[in-house]
Write a structure and sequence with these properties.
elongated; 24 strands; alpha+beta; single chain; 6-stranded antiparallel β-barrel
Amino acid sequence: MSAPGYTADTLEDIIRPSVVRVGASAGGHAEGGTTFLGSGFFVAPGWVLTNAHVVSGRGGPVGRRERVITVTTADGDNLPGEVMYLLPGPGAAPATPRGRTSGAWPFPDLALLRVPEAEWRVDEGTGCECLWLSDRSTLAPADTGLYGWIEVPGGAVEFHPSTGRASGGRDGHLVIQGGQLQPGCSGGPVVDLDRGAVIGVNKGVSKGGGSGVATPITALRVLRDSEQHGGAVLHELLSAHDRYHHGRLDGAGDCWPRVQPRLQDSRGGFSPELRAELYALFAELPPPRTAGEPIELSNAARLATLRPSYQVREFRPHSWREGAGLLYDAHDGRVSDGAGATGLELEAVMVYAAKVWAALSREGRGGQAARSALREWIDRNRRQVRNQVVRQIIVPQALAEDPRTGLTRSVARVEIEPDMSTPEAHTWHIRLDRGGGRVTMQHVAREPVPRALLREEISRALPAVLDLGDAFGVLADVEFVVPQPLFDLPVDAWPVRMTDPDEPRACRTLPLGRHRPVVLRDWARYGGREVREGYLEEWTRRWEALGAEAPAPVPLPGESRGEDGAREWLLAAPAGTVPVHSGRVGQGPGAGPMGAALAAGYPVALWTRCAGEHPAPGGEGPGSGSGAGGPPRGEPGRCAEFHERTRALFAGAATASELPARLRALRQRYDGESEAGETGTEADCARHLALLYDPPHRPRPAEGLLREPSRVFR
């Protein structure tokens, strides 16, 4: 609960100067006439956060960079505002028959306004006050204060505080129970009364009444995903926010780093003053390239300092400050069910800060002065860490070691299953496996989708998972677990948007298989179905052989043998054999032989998804055996270019584990040639290659899937 004497009403004097009225200018800003639309609040000097539906109300949708917004401060000053970002964009708002927005703006329903005249001037101590944005991933449950401006009888506008209890907010809206939200409060802040931090933005009252809804402040990260330079803008916004609050520590009057200890009755640990200092130093450093970077470092810090029962509640942090927030948001200075104790959060954050410094220093990211300032802060403040082992051993080790070494390689696994009730429809979900069976993120299809829509839906959901799995240039592997009829889906060619803000826009949407290895797994086998007695032993024997010797490609037996005959031939082949086929294997002539290979326990196979068959010159396929036991000569699908390319792909490979990376390199080569205008049969075959890479168990770190890390070079 909040400290005695602190309620939504008693915090009003601290919060009110930051909350503004948002209005549409009736006759230009110089005339001062405005139509009251709702509320907003300063999150950084010159930046106001509100609802998208607020700035679009009463006058139709507002376009980006239209100077039609008036921001009225608590002191009554009318300042010109500019709509910089709508989340989601203006085309997402439903319209009424008259063409105006209906008010039901889709999630997250946020708008960022630029108000240049409200810039804080530190030297003069003038400008508009800013609220403190939560850095925590877990925002609820929490006792909250709800703030905004409302119209009262007679046309006047007054400030309106109320209280409520927030819940939810993990993957959607916060639900506010007991709050007395009134028209006009939309866009105002939802403040955690225990911690003195904004955790949401008022949106409206639920249809049934009795509760309200708010957008969690964590949804602001949508800016990074939805705008061309959204990552840079989000970094600029949070950096300005953190510089402001650190600067206020040296100024007169109350400020949030001073108010928060009184709210929390803090007894040391990672105090708000230390937090303001550290985050201001983070503000001078370049942001993480992916969400996986702060996740990896915060997890490493947790394992080095905190109790095993303490778990990092993972979400998609896009700043170093959010990575630190992951380490204390379960207790932040308070004991709860033995999960933590006062001071533990300081130990963990100190190790985390050391790892951030070490990672950026070894990569040369950011200016030397900024990194030196962070190092000085660590050296000075680690004396406050009470645990002698952490203070004298773990923190110095974190500074000396390269935190990028030994990263656990993640696997993004896309599982597509047939829907038994709807023909030609499929359900799907995506899991991120960090090794050791730890699944840390999941996307699930809301309902079965037609096969034709799989690409669109999965391509939209996959970047968020990859963003969390990629870290420091080591890219997450991608596995598609699909039934055999879907083996010919061109999943490696599906466009996936890269989330690295340093990438130019022209390079941010690429075929998935161009920037990371992509392999297929058999859905029936992955589910552990029994095919025949001894099947798992055969599958395991062949997998172990492929990990110990060079793979030997052989053409897949022809359809004329029948599935039983093909399986017998495949069972008799050496354990290190890899079937290859010039043609499709999900359906058509190649489906039966591929089914036989799966039934015979083959974990690796290669084929091309070329639309047509390519008979070899003279009717004989390269590599077709003429002796006893070999597949018959002259079958369709023995494309000379395909087999030549296959031999080049396998040449020099010590084990089958090298094939995924080799195939990725081949895709990169021919994608580059096609962009340069070079095409041909050989290029087409290489571009459509598909690889089954299906171990009978989850590989351990030293073996199995794609051990050589893929790196992003700039």
